[in-house]
Amino acid sequence: MRVLSIDFGLKRTGLAVTDPARIIASALDTVPSTDLMAYLKRYVAKEAVEGFVVGLPCNLNGTPTDITANVQLFITELKKQFPKQFVETADERFTSVIAQRTMLASGIGKMARRDKGTVDRISAVLILQGWMDRRR
Length: 136
What we know:
Elements: E1 2-7, E2 12-18, E3 25-32, H1 36-46, E4 49-56, H2 68-81, E5 86-91, H3 95-105, H4 110-113, H5 116-135
Parallel strand pairs: 1-4, 4-5
Antiparallel strand pairs: 1-2, 2-3
């Protein structure tokens, strides 16, 4: 079964998903956060998803950021809407910076690097890949 990762933001949310064998994490989509729960319900209805990994933002010293409370509210609703799936959190510090550097190193053009949706999707992949690496 697949695992889906979520890089939650107030405006838009990046999503990534594993293959069924959980070998590879791939970017899935960027969704307006207001449409996120409906998107997840549609996705889970057509794909076997065992659980979710949600990026939990925190400052360098481990304290909550200004968006951490919003992410925790989202996690509460996610658990309520999907009681059969597990929900775990993963540290998302530096994922946006690493995503930007990855795009730069891969030769993606300047205009494409400005697309914040691309950064959100790559960040979700990094969150999921890190979660899979820790589980091995």
